[in-house]
From TrEMBL:
PANTHER family: ANTI-SIGMA-F FACTOR RSBW (PTHR35526:SF3), ANTI-SIGMA-F FACTOR RSBW-RELATED (PTHR35526)
UniProt key word Transferase: yes
Gene Ontology molecular-function annotations: ATP binding; protein serine/threonine kinase activity
Protein name in UniProt: ATP-binding protein
Tree of life domain: Bacteria
Entry keyword set: ATP-binding, Kinase, Nucleotide-binding, Serine/threonine-protein kinase, Transferase
Ranges for domain Histidine kinase/HSP90-like ATPase: 22-135
InterPro entries named among the record's database cross-references: Anti-sigma-factor_SerPK (IPR050267), HATPase_C_sf (IPR036890), HATPase_dom (IPR003594)
UniProt xrefs under Pfam families: HATPase_c_2 (PF13581)
Amino acid sequence: MLPAVPDQADYETPMIWRREFPGTDDQARAVRVFAATLLVTCPVLDDVLLVLDELVVNALLHTRSGLDGGRLTVEISRDAGGIAVSVADEGGPEVPCAGVPAVLAESGRGLLTVAALSTGWSWTGDERGRTLRATFAVP
């Protein structure tokens, strides 16, 4: 019987997966399950899952994706260069920023976590929709 997911050790064969999720609070877990299923043998899986969680939660909290009827799209790709994950949202007034929050602030560290765990991160878009992307080198 063939495995449901291609052998993840074969990073020479590029793969891209994309899925849309409703913009509800319970979907952060669904995104982590989606990624964990696809990247089961990935040596940096824990970092990928934490970063994806941060990107999804940010989309739900800071963009229209978290409003009633909102959606977000998650893309995961892997190739010889490593892993890339992105979350596309429906936009909002705030610009993604990995600045240092006030010492006692209860939030504002998500993108700092993304920057610390990934090889690099970036964003594109505007108030109508943004995509945040993080990359991971795979040993």
